[in-house]
Design a protein that fits this description.
Blueprint (H helix, E strand, L loop, with lengths): L15 H5 L8 E2 L2 H10 L3 E6 L4 H11 L2 H10 L1 E6 L4 H15 L6 E5 L5 E5 L13 H33 L8 E2 H14 L16 H14 L2 H16 L13 E2 L7 E2 L2 E2 H18 L2 H17 L10 E2 L2 E2 L2 E2 L7 H8 L1 H10 L20 H8 L3 H20 L6 E2 L2 E2 H18 L2 H17 L8 E4 L1 E2 L8 E2 L2 E3 L2 H18 L2 H17 L33 H16 L2 H12 L2 H6 L5 H11 L3 E6 L5 H11 L6 E6 L22 E6 L2 E2 L6 H9 L9 E2 L10 H10 L9 E3 L6 E3 L1 E4 L8 H12 L4 E3 L8 H15 L9 E6 L1 E2 L1 H12 L8 E2 L5 E2 L3 H15 L4 E7 L2 H9 L4 H24 L3 E7 L15 H12 L5 E7 L6 H4 L3 E2 L5 E2 L1 H7 L3 E5 L3 E3 L4 E3 L12 H27 L12 H7 L6 H26 L3 H44 L11 H10 L6 E5 ...
Helix pairs in contact: 4-6, 7-8, 7-23, 8-9, 8-10, 8-23, 10-11, 10-16, 11-16, 12-13, 13-15, 14-15, 16-17, 16-18, 17-18, 18-19, 18-20, 19-20, 20-21, 20-23, 21-23, 24-25, 27-28, 30-32, 31-32, 32-33, 36-37, 36-39, 38-39, 40-41
Length: about 1200
């Protein structure tokens, strides 16, 4: 007599996955207070097992271990065992997957994680076998080791788990937000191209996943840029998937992934979210290419979902399993004999040929239907017509489907998840819109109604999941909606509801989408960082409240939330929502820059935000022929960045700006095409609509996604206010008026030539300088390819937000004209589109220069964006002598070139005057190294003639106000070289003329002298402290590297499989020893270390950290600790060598100037002397000091506290630096 097996606590759950384990002998708990409290009370570790219903290896581990009485007894004795469905609890899945990857180096399901009683992870893995295997411990052994570890070293385990938890929390915290621009889209495409499988489609090696978001990104990029390679990558991947075994050719729908490169052998489970995303990708590709196969695949997938995956009540089920009758894939495979039994010999021959079904089989002796050959190829091999073969396949497939239904089906995971339903609602709406099938719209409406009526909380919020139970698993019948919804639930549903509104015009859908979005903003937004949290403020407290920006199996929820909010902003005419959407994407700007292809959904949202979308208003009766004709034409066009609203005549519709005054035209259906709420003439004829949609639209596309610009500009009152705050610190000597601008500026300004927003040192130094009262900031569009401006913009934004500074207290200057990096690329793009650029000098492949007014305005827009400002105080033309140099190199007459140059300056200055009038800049000027050249020099820039150009452009009240000129101890042309024609036949120095004209003069390079044969840093190095001797340190390092190569590397290869080659071995000791003889200065060493050596060494060590996990880590980590210590000793010794060299050079310079120094000049460092002497020159308003290190700020503060000394003004140029042998 048999009895029902005893059921554990999972018997009361609704998740099919948890119910699968309800009869296990394991004393499973669901996640919740009961289990967590029990672990605390017993002080017993938690064994957390996470999986999902369609997971093949989850089933395997259940059969092997969780149904094994002995293993279950071990689990029950030593642990509180908790089982979690990852699809119900994505928060737990993501937290503990991060832990699993950190501990074991990889992740997957089933996931097995051991936690302290307070939920902190300390050991983890995925599938464990039921018994020990070579090189791998069995699950019983793992259980015994972990339980013994807890018994013997619980305190140590707690400490280590706390460190791991801190690491996970750090992973979840996005870095500081940053600008995201079009280059991220291009880089993502390039990354995809680097891993693209040109033979079989897809990206990377097997296993191959259907990267729907990446495919959709490629399609958008192709549409916008005409990039044929992007289209090829997308379409060949779609072709390979639809022809492969990953696609269910008999019943429709895609499996989770392919295990091979050819897309033949799938992991047979079908997930709702995969099919939703792929339907959208195939429909977009159909619109772009008109390939009917894409429409067919999308239609078959949607039909499959309605038939097999939608409940009677309307909700979509989650998945179907890979296994049936305990065998993976058995439901889906065929033999020729089985085909013949259904179709008969003649038709079976045709279908077997087409679907690649043979006696030999293509997988484990059976056949996965796939279509490696076209109808034409197969028909030719059978000597029949392609049309006849197509008829046979169409009819035969129906019969095979009917026959397959008689087989035991894989498990249906019939829980209903809001987020996945949201994805499928969007896919169904897309199917209805593109294919014109009303059944798809009805399916979407039915699903939306189900969620909104059966999965809402009393307060209007959402539950995460439900399952209709006829057998009363919880003692009742009906739906069992439960668990708090996540960001993905609100975001995907809101997006789907917005899709519904855009196609159906039903106001309730817009209202519901708006309500869901408002809940997102209220409960999930991070008001400071911009990125959305994955859980609500009221959610259960876990060890971390996670945020995530990259895509996984489903699109990133933060990205979908951003796009939905941006779309809604156009419907509701609320631009402030677009700011919120932009902040959500910018929050991940830094990591997007590093790995853009992992952020495909974010980049799709970025594409929408950068481009003003096409706004479509469709007015008409959907039952009438004229409306249907326009709808058919509209459906043909691929318009990924669009906002659409439909008005059915005779119905009430919301009074929204987009819909105002939109009516029928002479009783006929009409479509209004608009941009930024400006509409073209209404269209009533489908052919006119085609012409309008196919003609290129010249609309503004933002170059980058930036933070909200700060309004205002520097004022006399504001800058005076700041100077008074710091007056005591600098004893009244710290500030001066900048020419005729009336602005008070610190006499030492923040120079940013080599600043980069990726350097925390640079950011900290700028913050320190701002707090010290340095209110003059100077940068340029080409400095570190815009990263300098970005860093300053971020520092300023934080200072303004914290109310440490006000915008009117700071004088911010940037420069334009020199084109490098991305600026040069934009110029190339303009030329490629047939647009001329005036006065363009193409100096080298990497360096261009221009005097073009239009490009100047574009550069200004870019600079304002990176700096997050509405107004720049000053905008200076940079290095105009490059124009003259280019003219000479190209054989032009020097005088004719100068005449053309000054004429072009008038045009350029006229454009700058217009920028002043528009409030985008306060003043303009020129930064040049050629001011000091004699007038006869072919590339000399005459300040007098430049002023004449300013008067010609702007009259006597022009806004030319500032120049920048190099000036330091060895470069003194501005002081002592007569170079400006004063108009009376006499020549004046640059400073004399500028002083006479009341120009602001900013001296540059006070610490960086350009001699004839070298550059010299005029800095006093810090006194060298005791440091290890270089040779001895290198010998220690060399011994460790030899040990690694000879002994450790073979062991590590054996344990990890990593193969070493000469490039991957550690061989730094000889390099460091040689470097000691090659160093020129401390600055030279710091540049080598920071930009070359440290990144190279760190990257190599991090690579080994990733490779050598598990048993290999026991060898690697102790040796690594010793090696890092030896590395530090060598680097310290090299720094000491460099410091001594710089000390000797500095002393030589000080000695050279000693005989002319006044007494107070002898008591300051070389650094301060160099700055002080520049500031003491009459006519210099301020000097710009590169602010990369805190010592630069200290030098500035020390100098600002000193009164200018007239005798010091004689120092620049008094010693010939070339004769010192520097």
């Amino acid at each position: 007599m048999s009895s029902e097996p005893k059921r554990n606590r999972l018997a009361g759950e609704t998740s099919p996955y948890l119910l699968q384990h309800a009869s296990n002998p394991v004393d499973w708990f669901p996640w919740g207070p009961e289990a967590l409290n029990r672990a605390e009370e017993l002080d017993r570790p938690i064994l957390l097992s996470i999986g999902y219903a369609a997971c093949h290896w989850c089933h395997v581990m259940e059969r092997e271990s969780f149904e094994n009485d002995e293993i279950a007894a071990l689990m029950n004795q030593h642990f509180v065992c908790i089982k979690v469905d990852r699809e119900e609890r994505p928060d737990l899945d993501e937290i503990y997957m991060a832990a699993t990857v950190a501990i074991s180096g990889s992740g997957g399901w089933p996931m097995t994680v051991f936690l302290t009683p307070d939920q902190r992870p300390f050991f983890a893995g995925t599938y464990f076998p039921p018994a020990d295997m070579p090189g791998r411990a069995g699950f019983p052994q793992i259980l015994k080791r972990v339980s013994q570890l807890w018994a013997d070293e619980a305190d140590k385990v707690r400490s280590q788990s706390a460190e791991l938890s801190a690491h996970i929390i750090g992973q979840s915290t996005p870095p500081r937000p940053r600008v995201v621009n079009d280059s991220a889209l291009t880089q993502a495409v390039q990354q995809l191209a680097s891993s693209y499988d040109s033979q079989f489609g897809g990206f990377g090696p097997a296993p191959k996943f259907p990267a729907a978001a990446s495919i959709r990104l490629l399609l958008r990029h192709s549409l916008r840029t005409g990039d044929e390679m992007a289209r090829e990558m997308a379409c060949s991947t779609l072709n390979a998937m639809q022809d492969g075994g990953i696609y269910d050719h008999i019943g429709g729908g895609f499996a989770r992934y392919a295990t091979d490169r050819h897309w033949l052998v799938p992991h047979f489970e079908k997930m709702l979210y995969d099919n939703a995303q792929l339907v959208s990708a195939y429909l977009e590709a159909y619109q772009l290419t008109a390939n009917e196969n894409y429409a067919r695949v999308a239609r078959e997938c949607l039909d499959y979902v309605i038939r097999d995956m939608q409940s009677e009540q309307g909700g979509y089920y989650s998945a179907t399993d890979a296994d049936s009758e305990g065998v993976e894939g058995k439901f889906f495979v065929w033999t020729p004999a089985q085909i013949q039994d259904v179709l008969g010999e003649s038709e079976a021959k045709r279908l077997c040929a087409y679907y690649d079904i043979t006696d030999r089989g293509n997988w484990e002796g059976t056949n996965i239907p796939n279509t490696p050959r076209s109808y034409v190829e197969v028909a030719a091999s059978l000597d029949i017509e392609p049309a006849g073969l197509a008829d046979s396949v169409r009819e035969g497939k129906k019969l095979l489907f009917t026959a397959r239904k008689a087989r035991p089906a894989p498990l249906l995971d019939d829980k209903i998840l809001v987020s996945w339903n949201g994805l499928m609602i969007s896919a169904m709406v897309a199917g209805a819109r593109v294919l014109g099938t009303t059944a798809y719209l009805e399916s979407a409406q039915k699903a939306a109604s189900f969620i909104l009526t059966r999965m809402r909380k009393p307060d209007g919020g959402l539950y995460r999941t439900t399952r209709h139970t006829d057998k009363g698993d919880k003692g009742d019948k009906g739906d069992n909606a439960h668990l708090d919804a996540y960001l993905e639930d609100y975001a995907f549903l809101a997006d789907g509801l917005l899709d519904l509104y855009e196609l159906s015009g039903t106001p309730a859908s817009l209202d519901n989408a708006t309500e869901m979005t408002e809940r997102m903003l209220r409960d999930f937004a991070d008001k400071d960082g911009g990125a959305f949290y994955q859980t609500a403020t009221t959610h259960e407290t876990l060890i971390v409240r996670r945020r995530e920006g990259s895509d996984g199996a489903i699109p990133n929820a933060n990205a979908i939330a951003a796009r939905c909010i941006a779309r809604l902003s156009y419907h509701l005419d609320k631009p402030e929502l677009r700011t919120i959407a932009a902040q959500a994407i910018r929050a991940y700007g830094r990591v997007i820059e590093t790995a853009p292809r992992a952020f495909a959904s974010s980049l799709i949202s970025l594409d929408f935000l950068l481009e003003s979308p096409t706004e479509i208003v469709f007015v008409g009766n959907p039952d009438k022929a004229d409306t249907r004709a326009l709808a058919r034409e509209l459906s043909r066009h691929y318009l990924p960045n669009r906002v659409e609203a439909r008005i059915s005549t005779g119905e009430e519709y919301p009074r929204l700006p987009l819909l105002e005054s939109k009516t029928l035209v002479d009783g006929r259906a009409a479509i209004y095409l608009c941009h930024d709420f400006r509409c073209e003439k209404p269209i009533t004829d489908p052919m006119d609509l085609r012409a309008a949609l196919e003609s290129p639209i010249d609309r503004q596309r933002a170059a980058a996604l930036r933070a909200t610009a700060v309004s205002g500009r520097a004022t006399a009152v504001g800058t005076l206010r700041l100077s008074l705050r710091h007056e005591k610190s600098y004893q009244g000597h710290g500030y001066a008026v900048l020419g005729t601008t009336e602005l008070q500026v610190s006499r030492v300004g923040i120079g940013s030539h080599r600043l980069h927003d990726g350097s925390s040192d640079h950011r900290q130094t700028v913050d320190l300088a701002l707090r010290a009262g340095l209110n003059l900031l100077d940068t340029a569009a080409n400095y570190t390819d815009g990263h300098s401006e970005t860093l300053l913009g971020e520092a300023l934004a934080e200072s303004f937000a914290n109310q440490q500074l006000k915008r009117d207290e700071l004088v911010i200057i940037s420069k334009f004209g020199t084109l490098q990096g991305s600026g040069q690329k934009r110029a190339r793009d303009r030329l490629g589109k047939g647009r001329e650029l005036s006065a363009l000098s193409q100096r080298t492949e990497q360096l261009w220069h221009h005097l073009d007014p239009v490009l100047m305005s574009a550069e200004l827009t870019e600079s304002l964006g990176r700096l997050n400002l509405e107004t720049l105080d000053g905008f200076l033309l940079q290095d105009p002598e490059l124009y003259l140099l280019d003219a000479i190199d190209n054989g032009r007459d020097p005088e004719a070139a100068k005449t053309a140059f000054y004429k072009q300056l008038v045009r350029l200055f006229g454009a700058l005057e217009r920028e002043v009038a528009q409030g985008r800049i306060g003043f303009y000027g020129v930064a040049s190294e050629a001011w000091v050249r004699p007038p006869s020099d072919a590339i000399a820039i005459d300040l007098g003639r430049v002023m004449e150009a300013a008067v010609a452009a702007g009259g006597e009240s022009h806004h030319f106000a500032v120049i920048e000129v190099p000036l330091n101890l060895f470069e003194a042309g501005a002081v002592n070289e007569p170079s400006v024609d004063s108009g009376d036949g006499n020549l004046q120095t640059t400073l004399e003329f500028a002083f006479q004209k009341q120009l602001g003069v900013l001296s540059t390079r006070p610490l960086d002298a350009a001699l004839q044969h070298s550059r010299v840093r005029l800095v006093q190095p810090a006194a060298s402290s005791h440091a290890p001797e270089l040779l001895a340190s290198c010998q220690v390092l060399e011994k460790l590297e030899a040990q690694f190569e000879e002994k450790l590397s073979p062991q590590l290869t054996a344990l990890s499989g990593f193969e070493f080659d000469p490039e991957t071995l550690l061989r730094y000791a000889p390099e460091f020893a040689q470097l000691g003889d090659e160093l020129e200065s401390l600055e030279h060493w710091e540049e080598l270390q920071g930009e070359i050596l440290a990144p190279r060494v760190l990257a190599q060590l991090q690579r080994f950290d990733r490779e050598f996990r598990g048993p290999a880590s026991q060898i690697w980590e102790p040796w690594r600790q010793k090696y890092v210590g030896a590395l530090d000793a060598c680097l310290t010794a090299l720094a000491a060598v460099a410091t001594r060299i710089s000390e000797q050079r500095s002393q030589k310079i000080v000695d050279a100037f000693a005989r002319t120094l006044p007494d107070d000049g002898r008591r300051v460092s070389l650094t301060e002397l160099a700055i002080w002497s520049a500031l003491s020159c009459e006519g210099v308003t301020a000097t710009l000091l590169g602010m990369r290190r805190s010592r630069h700020v200290s030098a500035a503060m020390q100098t600002l506290s000193r009164e200018t000394n007239e005798s010091l003004s004689d120092l620049p140029g008094s010693v010939d630096g070339d004769k010192l042998g520097l």
